[in-house]
Amino acid sequence: MWLNHIVGGNILLTTAAIAGGACFGDNIGLISDTTIVSSGIQKVEVVRRIRHQGVWSALVLLSGIIVFTVVGFTMDLPSTVGDPAEAINSIPADVWTALAEKRESAVKLLEQVRSGVPLYMAIPLVIV
C-alpha cells in the first residue's frame, strides 16, 4: 500500500488486487489451513479437492487477469515505477533512530529491501 501511495496509484484497485491474490492463494494452496480443515469436514482428500477446485481457481485467475488488465488500461493510471530504495531513503533520521531502539529487526529488513532482495528469496514462494 505504501508503494501505491508513493506512485499515486488507485487505492481501490490495489486493495482489490491484494484481496484477490490472498483469496486465490488461500483457496488453491495445499498447505492452507482453510483447505485442510474444510476437506477434513467434508471427508474429502486434500489432493482430490485441489484437483477439482483448481479448474475453478484457474478460471477465476484468468478472469481476474482480464478484468485487471482492462481496468488498468481504461482508468488512466499513472505509469510511474515505484523505487523501494528511494522510498526507504526518504525515511527521516529520527524515525530510523526510533526504529533502531524499538524494532531493530525492522531496520535490518528495510536495509535488505533498500539493497535489493536476492532472487533466491523467491524460491519458497515458487515451491509452495
Automatic annotation (TrEMBL):
The keyword Acyltransferase does not apply. Its main location: membrane. It is a multi-pass membrane protein. The chain crosses the membrane at residues 55-75. Pfam families: Na_H_antiporter. InterPro entries: Na/H_Antiport_NhaC-like_C, NhaC_Na-H+_Antiporter. Keywords: Antiport, Cell membrane, Membrane, Transmembrane, Transmembrane helix, Transport. Residues 21-87 form the Na+/H+ antiporter NhaC-like C-terminal domain. It is found in: Cell membrane. The keyword RNA-binding does not apply. Belongs to the NhaC Na(+)/H(+) (TC 2.A.35) antiporter family. This is NA+/H+ ANTIPORTER NHAC.
